[in-house]
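TOKENISED FOLD:
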Amino acid sequence: MHKSGLIEAVTTRFHESLPVWMAGGSEAAVYEFESSVTRLVALFNFFDLTATAELWDDLMTVMRRGFDPESTMKRPLLRKILSCCNLFVMWRIQALRKHEGVAHPDADDCAIHMARLRELVGLLMPVLTVGQTASDTVFAVYHVLLDLLVLHPAPLSTAAEWEFDLKFELPSVDQQAIAEFVEFQVFTNVLPETTSPEARLTHVHRRRQVLTQFCRAFTCDVISSRFAELVLRHYLTTTGDYSDVIKEAVRKMMEVSKVHCAEAVAAALIALFTKNIRSHKRNSQEILEIREMAKKLALLFGTDNEKSRWAMGALHKYCVEFIREATDDRDLAKRVLFFDVLSEFTSKLRREDKARLVGRLNSLPNLLALNGDVVTPFFQYRNSLTSSGTDTDDPADKHRRGRRVNPVIPKHRAAALRLPTPTPDKDDVASVVASMASSVAGDAPDAEADEPGDIAADVSME
């Protein structure tokens, strides 16, 4: 059978069996519908079946039925329908970006595609709730959702105007929900000790996939880098199952944008600081641990302050804004302690940036009205910004190590610096002349000896 005939036969069978299945038909009718869905998934993986709009409407009808809390729909069937919807969107976005034979895709086609995308995302987001049972369907929803986000990133500023019509930005509330889902499924939901090694291996593999997908999302900037703080919180503490995934994500984020990585570092430190902010005291064990983590995270940005200049500016600005947003004096007194953590990054700033930051600090409200002991971290942070420092033109000069080499002195200067030959006393002239005469006579008996008076005259002239 020809390809077009095969596609038409499968889609027609799906459309005809759907009403019978929705009405709760016989077992034979249910089997016919499920087999048509299986064939539809197989065809979707190889061919574009998005030519008819009725197919999308029928797929979404089945999806709504499947996610109904009172639905008895089989979960494997729901995952197949979910896969069809995902492939439908993928084929459409590829066709719109390819736009063969035209300068840009039709605006109406872009609008229809984005409306379908919002409809699908709105249906999937409520599934990712904290505490949700880690079933195969929930993980399938998570992967489909993040695949859709990665396919619709924010275009570059130099991109064509029509590419902005295909941009999809997930609301901040939904991004937070995804981050909380990852936090719960990967780091919070601990496996029971009675889990068998085979089952534990399966669960760990699934969680690594969840974490990898989330890391890909924020490195592609479809999820704000500020929500990457849950990964950075475990950057220095997690070992074993997820450490390689986290370190690779941080490396990739630094490669893509140091500014975004700096914002994620600031958000991670603030999240750790605000976890028990009411019980914080200066030089307490919690503050010292956060400072130690900040010191290690500062190493991510290297030793060249020029390359990390914008990233450090974003980090300090983000942290100062966190302190500025205090609700009252009591809250401000607690947040001032964060200046001790922020001080670990002052060495990464250039002199001119330190001066600008000092001017920004002077505008903090009600800070000087606090008790002298409470405001000490602020003064120490400001003093670290105003302390003298130099920025060398060549960053490599800071890191040269080796044995000190004496300078090479030119020959004309070496002659001037050579010590003069000491002049013998007059009493020793006779003995010197006699010894020289005897040595000359012994070495060359045939040679005519110089007169002693002449040699004495030469020596005295010297």
User: Anything to note?
Assistant: The longest helix spans residues 75-98. Residues 281 and 390 are 34 Å apart (CA to CA). The chain has 20 helices and no strands.
